[in-house]
Amino acid sequence: MTFTSNEFMAKSKGPKRAVIAVFVVAVVATAVGYVLGSGGSAAGQAPGSNDPGAVAPHQSSPVPAVSSTTVASLGPIRLVQGSVLVTGLYTEFPHSTIGAISAADEYITALGSTLDPDRAATVARLAADPSYAGAQNEAATGAQNTRKALGLKATGPVPQGYSVEVSAVSYQLKSESADSAEVLLLAYFTEATPSQGTVAHAAVFPMVMHWAAGDWKFLPMDSTDYSSLAVQPGSAQAASDGWINFTQ
């Protein structure tokens, strides 16, 4: 299966288990794109391997290569936790660049690690920007797309042995200002099924963050093809491509 972070939505910290991003508002209808069904990219796993670290060799994208970080890097950072926990989701992050990156990580993890359309819609209701009117529907559709990609029905109980998870390891800042930031997250996207076992992929999630209603919220994902940046987290290639690791 090939995944792209822009397909998570219907619109289309150390290694953590990666999840199929099916909601990130039109982000990745394929692995990363499922989350929100819009955009994003993931590198394929090395053929014949179930090792999360065995990612296919880095290959250049068929589209013009995207640039690496376009704003000054903060260097390695420690993610912070939101001050309020609502139905399992942390919200109310600091009004800072680190707060924006931390919120992006929290939201994509929640959106990409569920096969429950209702849960995805709830995350969108809590975390999407007020101007993102279709976020809840796109998030739910993203989860449904992910289920279908795993061979499941769009709705209903999840059979034992099926799961997805997104675990971001590194970041890049494409742009930032006092009230906005575009954050690229390099993550492990992990899917598990009874037939194939657990398989991990490297995926890039382009989270567009906006300060609104006293918190960082997400907008529709950037539709740029970042597949050329979906490389083995922590590798020399990742460092060369501008990825900055999170600290513990």
UniProtKB/TrEMBL annotation:
<protein>
    <recommendedName>
        <fullName>Integral membrane protein</fullName>
    </recommendedName>
</protein>
<feature type="region of interest" description="Disordered">
    <location>
        <begin position="43"/>
        <end position="62"/>
    </location>
</feature>
